[in-house]
Amino acid sequence: MKKFISIVFAFSLFASTPSSAVEFGQDATGDSNAVHIQGNTSGFLYSERIILTAAHVLNQLTIQPNGDTQGFVYAPGLADKTNAKKYQIIKAIIPKTFVKSDPARNVQPIDDFAIVIINEDMPLKNKVVIANEKQMRQFAQDKAKVEMVGYGLQSGAQRGAPQLSLRAPFKLKTLLYTPEMMKTFYAPPSTQPGFWTVVEWGAIHTQATGSICNGDSGSGLFVEENNVRYYVGTAGNGLGISNCRSDGSIKMDPKGGMSWFPAPHKFLDLIESAEKFVTEEKKREFAIAEEARLAAELKAKVEAEAKAKAEAEAKAKAEEEAKAKAEEEANAKLEAESRVKAEAEAKARAALSKKTTITCVKGKKIKKVAAINPKCPVGYKRSSR
Fold first, then answer.
1. pTM value?
2. What is the pLDDT of residues 58-74, one digit of tens each?
């Protein structure tokens, strides 16, 4: 992370101009809120689907008049994003009061704040609270440590080979300035920027504490207490910073560079509308999932019933066939038994009805007697011959 150059970096939503970034900082890989948005810009994960950023960087996305948006963002804290999942951006919300900068006409960027909404939940490890006016003033008064984590350039050497997919997030530390403190900071002999029509909140940057640089626009400035991050502003515009000079030199305002931004609590209505949109999206997704679930259950039920019916019909058919076969076999058996019995009876009858011939003798008389049960006449004897 390096320091800002002593020129104003104010950006337009529609014009592709450099955004502010981080220099002279510390590696913050794994940070729970810093996200890399499509292109060379940063954002702050506010809730599972809501990301806070600067309005002027959204020119890198495709935004329809109704806010429907095409673009993507990576999960927070990633260094190597080569094969990382891309969460799809579906909506962008920009304040109607946003004024894009026009350096040629000395037009100050005003309310440079935006919200982007993604199509599915992103892992959120901590609680984020939008600091109110009283809290912000107390942070400024107490000189509470303000931090910012962004995906901007970390040195001028990266301008030739930015390696966006491999760039890790870097962290800087700063102090919060109220609008009144900003006026004091630029009081004579210093000169307040002539194009300022509105004095916003600020954060000071030095070589010792780190400074924003190209690519850090959209990063969130926050105070962390008890694992709660109080969001106090959105990086995006700076004055008096080195801004990662390509020749490696450092050119900072001796008093320190300054970035300025609107108080985020001004946009609670937009955040609320984003939360309502997410709620409706989740309801819609639940309804679609429920419809799909019911359809799947109905399909499974119909298929199960059809299967049961087919199985029942197959079983009934098998039973009928088995019964018919059994009856056929029983009939065949009966027929066979009847046939055997008939044959036996016929054989028996045949045996009973067969005539036997015997020889009967009486003296010299011989008589043949043929009968079923032949007997010799009276006076004759049965001959053994």
1. 0.74
2. 887 888 877 888 899 99
Distance CA 162, CA 165 (A): 9
SS3 213: coil
- For residue 177, give both structure tokens: 């300035």
* Three-state DSSP class for residue 62: strand
Query: Coil, strand or helix: which one is 201?
Result: strand
- Give whole-number Cα distances, 98 to 9, 94, 156, 214, 335, in Å: 16, 7, 30, 21, 104
**60 vs 214: CA distance, rounded Å:** 14
CA 272 to chain centre: 23
In a domain, 118, yes or no: yes
Q: Do 229 and 333 belong to one domain? A: no
66 and 177 belong to one structural domain: yes
- Residue 254 CA, chain-centre distance (Å), reads 48
Q: What percent of the chain has pLDDT over 70?
A: 87
CA distances from 198 to 137, 154, 268, 326, 354 (A): 18, 30, 20, 101, 142
Q: Which residues lie closer than 8 Å to 131 by C-beta, 6 or more apart?
A: 139, 223, 230, 231, 232, 264, 265
Which pLDDT band, with edges at 50, 70 and 90, does 133 fall under?
Answer: very high
Q: What is the CA radius of gyration of the chain?
A: 50
* One domain, residues 184 and 248: yes
Q: What are the strands, taking DSSP E only, across 17-86?
A: 22-23, 26-27, 34-37, 41-45, 50-53, 62-63, 68-73
Task: Look up residue 261 and give its two tokens.
Answer: 């931004």
Task: State pLDDT tens for residues 275-302.
Answer: 999 999 999 999 999 999 999 999 999 9
Residue 180 and residue 56 share a domain: yes
Pair 110, 71: CB distance under 8 Å: no
Residue 9 lies in a domain: no
- Pick from 228, 262, 296: which residue ends a domain? 262
Q: Where are the beta strands (DSSP E) in 144-194?
A: 146-150, 170-174, 176-177
CA–CA separation, 236 and 185 (whole Å): 19
Q: Is residue 11 part of a domain?
A: no
Q: Which residues pair with 93 in a beta bridge?
A: 115
- Does 214 share its domain with 284? no
